[in-house]
Design brief:
The protein is built from 17 helices and nine strands. It is α/β, with parallel strands linked by helices and 460 residues long. The protein has two domains: 3-147; 194-436, Rossmann fold. Helix 10 (206-219) crosses helix 11. The longest helix is centred in the first third of the chain and has 30 residues, at 101-130. The N and C termini lie far apart (105 Å).
Length: 460
């Protein structure tokens, strides 16, 4: 077979990457396996593995995992040397680099489409040569089919399908935020495939909310990936330790033994994982994040929730002339990733200048593109006046919800950034706030007078 009829001209690494993508990305595997032939690969053992994957897909309608591939190899190849080579090849495929996966998928699909078109053209020539004019309609359909290689129908279903599942009370399987008043309005929290956005001006507490949600999901037994760009990893770790121990971050060190004991007990008790990762904000795309999650899945780590702190630090896959369109595309890619990989997705975005002094932050005060608001299933805003910051209070609003009630405002609810405590079920009235403020002012004046008297006494 000449090199333009297989992947040899693209190299061995490309073929390893392609096979890796077929296993890790089920949608891609579904789109290409029907037209991918073992003969497109140069290596004998690549061909064997492709055939194994195709047979499994035909029988079970999904691509096999690496563990399944290894089991198939061990059961079907009794000759020790052959089995070992196939297992080693599977290992090499699993360890193939994932960078540039978009290029690999696009190139492979284009190649397969070309092969299908060539097959159609040969049949077309036979029809033309034989003068079988009645087959022209069939030929047209064949060309359309060849051009649709790689197109996967998503979301199409009969309205009457799966009635029992649709009418099940817990069909969404939400993961709670850990903030009871809001969880109730969101019917238990966000479900897999849904994304939520925390909207707040700088310095208000976006990371506090996201860390609390990540911690709560982990405590409930879910696997959580918390990605951040600006904070020091040790600061995020200490926030989680504070949530578990109820010891303020600046007092963790002096209570080191108690903290270590508590954290170790949690680690031993919980079989799931809370993975923290600090990433650079100048080069990262949703595609890079998606690749990281695929690698985790391949390593046996199934992620249930991703917390992205925050979406404004992620670059679009392709730069557009309009910066706002780029921001909207990033949010759409985040939503598509969560839907495809069955993740609950939480992220945050900055409010614009006007949001800094607002008593209630609204969606139109979102910085950058309003398209970010259009994509999110839920948008929760946080506002803090200087008085509220002093009293460790905030005004939290559900400004958008496709799930439950929106337009709900929790005024002057408890919001303690230091202890990561957020309580929307109790609030302080403005009257109480003013009374507290008056008392604080009186105490400050008394302290000042005491210091002056002490100074005079020292002079005497």
């Amino acid at each position: 077979m000449s090199k333009d009829k297989n992947f040899e001209y693209l190299g061995t690494t490309f073929q390893l990457q392609l096979l890796n993508q077929i296993v890790l990305d089920r949608n891609f595997g579904n789109s290409i396996l029907e037209v991918l032939e073992p003969t497109y690969f140069e290596n004998k053992y690549f061909k064997i593995i492709v055939q194994m994957v195709k047979e499994h897909y035909k029988k079970y309608e999904h691509t096999p995992s690496y563990d399944t591939l290894e089991q198939i190899a061990k059961s079907e190849f009794t000759q020790e040397t052959t089995c070992k080579i196939i297992l080693d090849t599977i290992k090499n495929i699993q360890e193939a680099p994932t960078d540039g996966y978009s290029f690999v998928q696009e190139k492979a699909l284009k190649f397969c489409k070309q092969q299908e078109l060539q097959k159609v053209m040969k049949k077309a020539q036979k029809i033309i040569d034989s003068g079988e004019f009645e087959n022209y309609d069939t030929l047209e359909e064949m060309v359309k089919t060849a051009l649709q290689v790689g197109e996967v129908e998503r979301g199409l279903m009969d309205v009457f399908s799966g009635l029992d599942e649709v009418l099940n009370d817990d069909y969404r399987h939400p993961i709670p935020m850990g903030i009871p008043g809001i969880d109730k309005l969101l019917k238990g929290g966000l479900a897999k495939g849904e994304i939520g956005v925390i909207l707040a001006p700088t310095g208000v507490g976006k990371s506090t909310v996201l860390t609390k949600m990540a911690n709560n999901a982990f405590n409930l037994g879910y696997n959580v990936l918390q990605i951040f760009f600006e904070d020091n990893p040790k600061i995020i770790q200490r926030k989680h330790f504070t949530l578990w121990t109820e010891i303020a971050p600046d007092r963790l060190s002096e209570n080191k033994e108690k903290v270590i004991q508590t954290v170790q007990e949690i680690r031993e008790k919980m079989p799931n994982q809370l993975i923290l990762e600090k990433l650079p904000s100048d080069t990262l795309t949703i595609g890079h994040i998606k690749n990281k999650i695929r690698k985790m899945i391949a390593d046996g780590k199934k992620i249930d929730m991703i917390v992205l702190d925050y979406i404004d630090c992620v670059l679009p896959e392709k730069q557009m002339e309009d910066e706002w369109k780029s921001e909207g595309s990033v949010m759409r890619q985040f939503e598509a990733m969560c839907h495809e990989m069955e993740l609950v997705g939480w992220t945050a975005t900055q409010g614009n200048r006007s949001s800094i002094s607002s008593e209630v932050v609204t969606t139109d005060q979102m910085g950058g593109s309003i398209k970010k608001a259009q994509v999110g299933h839920v948008i929760i805003s946080i506002a803090k006046t200087l008085q509220q910051k002093e009293m460790k209070l905030a005004t939290i609003a559900i400004t958008k919800s496709r799930i439950g009630s929106d337009g709900v405002i929790f005024e002057n609810c408890k919001f303690d950034n230091e202890m990561i405590v957020i309580d929307t079920e109790s609030s302080v009235t403005f009257l109480g706030f003013e009374e507290n403020k008056e008392e604080k002012n009186r105490q400050r004046l008394k302290d000042l007078m005491d210091k002056r008297q002490q100074k005079q006494n020292n002079l005497q």
